[in-house]
Amino acid sequence: MSPELISILVLAAVFVIATTRSVNMGALAFAAAFGVGELVADLDADGIFAGFPGDLFVVLVGVTYLFAIARANGTTDWLVHASIRLVRGRVALIPWVMFFLTGALTAIGAVSPAAVAIVAPIALSFAARYGISPLLMGAMVVHGAQGGGFSPISIYGTIVNGIVERENLPGNETALFLTSLIANLVIAGVVFVLFGGLKLWRQPADTAPEHPEAHATETALTPARVATLTSLLALVVAVLAFDLDAGLTAVTLAALLSAVWPDDSRKAVTQIAWSTVLLICGVLTYVGVLDEMGTITWAGEGVGDIGVPLLAALLLCYIGAIVSAFASSVGIMGALIPLAVPFLAQGEIGAVGMIAALAVSATVVDVSPFSTNGALVLAAAPDVDRERFFRQLMIYGGIVVAVVPAVVWLVLVVPGFG
User: Fold this and answer.
1) What are the transmembrane regions (predicted)?
2) CA-CA 20 to 30 A from 287: which of 110, 213, 259, 370?
3) Are 51 and 188 in contact (CB under 8 A)?
């Protein structure tokens, strides 16, 4: 049995054990990374830890720490009520406001995880306050971020268009952007209908469920809340205007608030989503081992050698979706687009449609709790059964992985656009 196949079977075993025994999947994944890395791939500790997502660790800790402080001192309650007044009490509009807000942030240049890190904690606070499904709200935030993610001036858009140019493939920046926007808008509409969005039209904000402390916290702007609001604004400016790291910026701002108002912040450290941090970092470390030992490249090259262009295109879309649910979306596109070059050169597959299909397949799955965006949503949700919410995100992500690549392949690749 090849090392690559062994590593895939071990990953499947991690999923089965974690699901049936209620063990933190991250802990199992760290053990698997150690075992497979040492015994199968002959990697040393540096090789095993090469895939440890240090940047994501800091983002998860920093953002959840900062917003735990905001919840503790009543800032998020104030924000929720202020925003409800802006939408004139129409609770059903809130998920769509979050969708277009994150879409606008990524369209003008914010990295998708940074936009989700900014919007998700506020959006999930709305969900907790007004009885909105956290899965609905989280999906709207992530799909909004991906909807705007391929504009010609966005990070994703410029990277993919640059790869296309480097590989001397025909490209269409506008088609790429609109394809992603329409795909995510359609998915968001389906999610809105299926997960309770329609009933929100009948729910006025003044009769929606509230936390017991709501009436005591919704009115006054105390110095601590003003400082917290200023910190949240500073986070947005630092990320969007100065391209600073969202995680490091959030940790710094949280530490400053804690130093000035220690009573409000004392419990915030315990509210950092540590179980989520362990889960995500463990799984991604194992995926890093797969990358180090060549498993991902092995699977992609095997597909490219099939010899049936349409079938190879479909399988590449699925590989992009499956791997991206655990790893960097842009990194996966950077690997898969060159793999598609040989059969695109045959002229049987339209390059524009294929590239758009790969882009959508590799990013629409970012609602998976193992991806950066999905992990941020999971970590940001207050007052939820986190294990139950994790399973919901995993099931929803699995449905997206199973359905979307086939749909975009049928709509964009089979007709031969490009």
Assistant:
1) 47-70, 91-108, 114-132, 144-164, 176-195, 232-260, 272-289, 310-337, 349-381, 393-417
2) 110
3) no
Amino acid at the residue 254: A
How far are the Cα atoms of 18, 121, 212, 277 from residue 13, in angstroms, in the given order?
8, 33, 43, 21
Token pair for residue 346? Answer: 């045959």
Report whether 240 contacts 109 (CB < 8 A). yes
pLDDT in tens, 305-334: 676 778 888 988 998 898 888 766 766 776
Strand partners, 90: 204
pTM of the model: 0.74
Among the listed residues 386, 56, 381, 62, the one whose alpha carbon sits nearest the alpha carbon of residue 234: 62
* Placement of tokens 């190879």 in the chain: 312
Of the candidates 370, 394, 373, which has an alpha carbon nearest to the alpha carbon of residue 106? Answer: 373
In tens, the pLDDT along 61-97 reads 888 888 889 888 888 778 767 777 777 778 888 899 8
Q: How far apart are CA 157 and CA 180, in angstroms?
A: 10
Alpha-helical (H) ranges within 73-167 are: 75-86, 93-107, 112-130, 134-147, 155-166
First to last CA, the chain: 40
